[in-house]
Write a structure and sequence with these properties.
about 50% helix, Rossmann fold
Length: about 170
């Protein structure tokens, strides 16, 4: 494992796993949310975002967390491993809201500067509808562009801990 994508719904633990995996494998970690979100939760935009991601995946080794389906085919083309954190939508919602309560007013290291932790109806809807709206696109892209990747699904904290311990 040298080029790893970590995907899944918000609140699932992608960024935490990315940090732990990067440290364990001595690989650089990139959180796509940190690149996409500009101060004040303003989107960078696809024209600026795609070339940055293309440059990232050209590297020899990396861990990248985030969905961003428009860049998924280019990331899949270079990845050797995809890890999908797949929790229930209720778990994701509870975890994301808990994170908001714990960190409100602060900016996480895996999100762009000037983007304090927030939780609003739009974000809650995204999480609630992820399996209907986002997951099918990700699965289709994996089938189309990722036949060569090692595909791993992790569904709980225990599975994540066991996976990390087994490395």
């Amino acid at each position: 494992m040298k080029r790893i994508l970590i995907i899944g719904c918000s609140g699932g633990g992608k960024s935490t796993l990315a940090r732990k995996l990067g440290a364990k494998l001595s690989l650089p970690v990139t959180h796509l949310d940190k690149l996409w979100w500009q101060p004040g939760w303003v989107e960078l935009g696809h024209d600026a975002f795609c070339p940055v991601v293309e440059k990232l995946v050209a590297g020899d080794g990396w861990v990248i967390d985030g969905n961003y389906s428009d860049t998924f085919p280019m990331r899949l083309a270079r990845a050797d491993t995809v890890i999908w954190i797949e929790r229930s939508r209720l778990q994701n919602l509870i975890r994301a809201f808990g994170r908001f309560l714990l960190l409100r007013g602060t900016v996480r290291e895996d999100v762009g500067e000037g983007c304090p932790e927030k939780f609003d109806l739009e974000f809650a809807r995204y999480i609630w509808n992820y399996n209907r709206d986002v997951a099918p696109r990700m699965e289709a892209a994996i089938r189309e562009f990722g036949a060569h990747v090692n595909f791993i699904r992790l569904r709980s904290d225990r599975e994540i801990a066991n996976f990390l311990e087994a490395l």
